[in-house]
Design a protein that fits this description.
The complex is a heterodimer of chains A (254) and B (221). Chain A has 254 residues and is an all-alpha fold. Helix content of chain A is 76%, strand content 0%. Chain A is built from six helices and no strands. In chain A, helix 2 packs antiparallel against helix 3. The termini of chain A are far apart. Helix content of chain B is 87%, strand content 0%. The two termini of chain B are 27 Å apart. The longest helix of chain B is centred in the middle third of the chain and has 30 residues. Chain B is elongated, with a radius of gyration of 18 Å. Chain B has 221 residues and is mainly α. Chain B contains nine helices and no strands. The chains are: A mainly alpha (254), B mainly alpha (221).
Chain lengths: 254, 221
């Protein structure tokens, strides 16, 4: 499987077939999820209508973390097996993860203003998501900091693995430092405490975000591959012209 | 073992003979701490409240500032290639270099911190906690910094880049370091904070050189 999909041409063919249905599914699931979240799900007895931000906020937070995991796993695969597509996948996933993290921070801030009375609080979870955002920025900056693109990709892979080891440590240390954010209500011992009428729209939104991530990841990977091909052609063009000089310029050998 | 000692001694000699190097990081450290009272006002209560945090932040920044000393010169003159070719594992060379880096940047900060503690009006017990915390935490700063220094070799604007990479990784050290002094003042136990600081340094000791050596190898080929 790993080697079968390692061929970029094969990847382009398969992903080209997969992309249209994936995109349609993304649109459909996100539309359904947004409809359920904004119109069908009941308002919270405490938070009122503003609870609806949660349907955009929570999946974004999960996807922000999930995308970092994707970057780290792809980086590990790239370092161990030198898989040609893994580095491209890691680099394609990082800005998406950064965007999800930013969405999470912004929507959380918008929700915090009416609920907590403040745009930002130095709460443990918010701080660790902010740090995650900076880890993404560091990774993206490092990957793009080298003239030699392969070097940037390899340096980024090492950094992603360092980051994934550090992420839990950072998480626990800020948890100990300060906690205001409500505890997890979906993944906990004894089942979720969130009501099914809200859990279902949330799960559909998560599925929609996941599909969105996959679609954009494939689009970005295909773009990166096409760019690499275009660059190779551009670099090869002068060389080819030099190899085959015009006929009138051929030196005459006697 | 003698090889590591040789490398360690070489790094120390380089740091001392190039003069200024040690003084530079130390001067930055002191100056950064001095800036804060000028910024927030000279009231002793405020300074006592935020003093330990200021000193820790200044220590972090001055550690970041001196990171390029670790590998950049050896990378430029080819010394790093010789280290990579030598019989000693690159991970070991990284540890020796980190030890020298700590002795010339971390240790001076530890020795200087009691005086800075006086400047921000900390009492004796807090100063002891501050210095002890720095002593336990600064090795982690050197070790984690080595990863960033190795990753950014040959990059455009390596200084800014390595600070962007390494400051998020320094976060736990700052939290527990400043937390130890804070706990000493408000009466919680400072011990767990100090133990966690020591744990961070000890955890970084085997792990960070592996990552830094991997980064060096791919910088060299």
């Amino acid at each position: 499987m790993l080697t079968y999909l390692a061929n970029p041409a094969r990847f382009m063919r398969i992903s080209g077939v997969m992309l249209p249905p994936l995109g349609l599914a993304t649109v459909a699931v996100l539309a359904l999820g947004l409809y359920l979240a904004l119109f069908v799900a009941p308002p919270d007895y405490q938070q009122g209508e503003s609870v609806r931000i949660m349907f955009v906020h929570v999946p974004a937070a999960w996807m922000g973390l999930f995308a970092y995991l994707v970057v780290a796993v792809a980086s590990g695969v790239a370092l161990v097996w030198r898989h040609p597509l893994a580095e491209i996948a890691a680099q394609a996933a990082a800005p998406l993860g950064a965007a999800f993290t930013l969405v999470c921070l912004v929507t959380g801030s918008l929700w915090g203003r009416p609920m907590w009375g403040t745009w930002w609080a130095w709460d443990a979870r918010m701080t660790s998501v902010l740090v995650l955002f900076f880890l993404y920025l560091g990774y993206i900056a490092l990957v793009n900091a080298f003239d030699d693109m392969g070097r940037g990709a390899r340096a980024g892979s090492v950094l992603a693995l360092v980051g994934v080891v550090n992420l839990p440590i950072i998480k626990f240390s800020v948890d100990w430092w300060n906690t205001l954010h409500q505890a997890d209500s979906v993944f906990r011992m004894g089942g979720p405490t969130i009501d099914p009428s809200m859990l279902w729209p949330l799960m559909i939104m998560v599925l929609g975000y996941l599909l969105l991530f996959k679609t954009l990841l494939l689009v970005r990977m295909r773009t990166a591959l096409n760019e690499a091909k275009a660059r190779a052609l551009r670099l090869a063009a002068p060389a080819r012209a030099a190899e085959a000089p015009p006929p009138d310029a051929t030196p005459v050998l006697r | 073992m003698t090889r590591y000692l040789h490398l360690f001694r070489r790094e120390l000699q380089l740091a001392f003979r190039q003069g200024g190097e040690i003084g530079l990081a130390l001067g930055f450290f002191v100056l950064a701490v001095v800036l804060f009272p000028l910024g927030v006002g000279p009231e002793a209560e405020i300074l006592r409240r935020i003093g330990a945090g200021i000193i820790w932040v200044a220590a972090l920044l001055s550690a970041v500032l001196s990171l390029d000393r670790l590998f950049a010169a050896d990378y430029a003159d080819g010394g790093l290639d010789l280290l990579a070719l030598s019989a000693m594992p690159l991970e070991g060379a990284v540890i020796a270099k980190c030890a020298a880096h700590w002795a010339t940047t971390g240790l001076p900060l530890v020795l200087m911190s009691p005086f800075l503690g006086l400047l921000v009006d900390l009492d004796g017990a807090s100063i002891a906690l501050l210095a002890l915390g720095l002593l336990l935490g600064t090795p982690a700063l050197s070790l984690l910094g080595a990863i960033a220094a190795a990753l950014t070799l040959g990059a455009r604007r390596p200084g800014v880049l390595s600070s962007l990479i390494v400051l998020p990784l320094y976060l736990p050290v700052l939290i527990f370091g400043a937390g130890a002094v804070e706990a000493g003042i408000v009466g919680g136990g400072a011990r767990p904070h100090l133990l966690l600081l020591a744990a961070l340094s000890l955890g970084a000791l085997p792990l960070a050189p592996i990552a830094a050596a991997a980064a060096l190898r791919q910088a060299l080929d």
